Amino acid sequence: MKSLIVVKAGSTFSQTRQNFGDFDEWTCAGLGTGTLPRLVIDGRDQSPLPSVAACAGVVITGSHAMVTDKEPWSVRLEEWIRELIAGQVPFFGICYGHQLLAAACGGQVAYHPAGKEIGTVSIERLPAADADPLFAELPADFVAHVTHAQTVVTLPPGSVRLAANAFEPNHAFRLGPCAWGVQFHPEYTPAIMRHYIDEQAQELAAAGQDVTRLRKQVAATPVAAEIFRRFGHFCEKR
């Protein structure tokens, strides 16, 4: 039986991990329940990556690494992503995974010129999302948790923009029939989001961000979570 693959592209802060677990655990929980076997792999090691034929779907998590550093393990994942896209394996990239999907398929990733976007932010669902399997029939505006310094500057050729806000023009896109990238974190809970703000409070304050306001604005993000659950259901149906 094919497996739903979760590729762990890094680990969270040590204290966050002690309190809440790690990226792979949040991702598996966010996908919801289902009958497909789950296989978690660490994308940073040198173990063979699953064959296209073995994958019912693939999720690549966020990371504290930077896509533009082109670390060998990350470049290897880019090559694998191209194989997955060619084989029409359902794919969902979160933050780092979103940027990696773009970089692998002809897009461009760079540091965001306005600095870091962090906290619970408003996002607009774009008109093209009306026909999208994951984004259709959702509210026109929703909130999501974010923490990122890099951005997809240029989408891959043929991409469909699905969501944006004033800070981030490419918060979500689809490539082909079944590959999605989201810059936001649908797997975060409000508690995890607050902890991320706290862990970076000194850096954020030095950059002129109001840490107290960021913490107060953290809220539940049910629509973002629903998008991710829909991906899990999409893989089940396939």
Shape: globular
Average pLDDT works out at 97
Q: What's the story with the biggest beta sheet?
A: 9 strands, mixed
- Summed up, the helix count is 8
Strand residue content: 25-35%
Q: Which runs of at least 5 residues are low in confidence (pLDDT < 50)? A: none
Task: Give a short synopsis of this structure.
This protein is of the alpha/beta class. The protein has 8 helices and 11 strands. Helix 3 links the parallel strand 3 (55-60) and strand 4 (91-94).
Describe the structure.
- It contains eight helices and eleven strands.
- The strands form two sheets. The protein has a nine-stranded mixed beta sheet with strand order 2-1-3-4-11-10-9-6-7, sandwiched between helices. A two-stranded antiparallel sheet has the order 5-8.
- The longest helix is centred in the C-terminal third of the chain and has 16 residues, at 222-237.
- It is globular, with a radius of gyration of 16 Å.
- With 238 residues, it is an alpha/beta fold.
- It has helices at residues 14-20, 23-30, 72-86, 96-104, 190-199, 201-206, 211-216, 222-237, and strands at residues 3-8, 38-42, 55-60, 91-94, 108-111, 117-125, 141-148, 150-154, 160-164, 172-175, 179-182.
- The protein starts with a strand and ends with a helix.
- The chain is 32% helix and 25% strand.
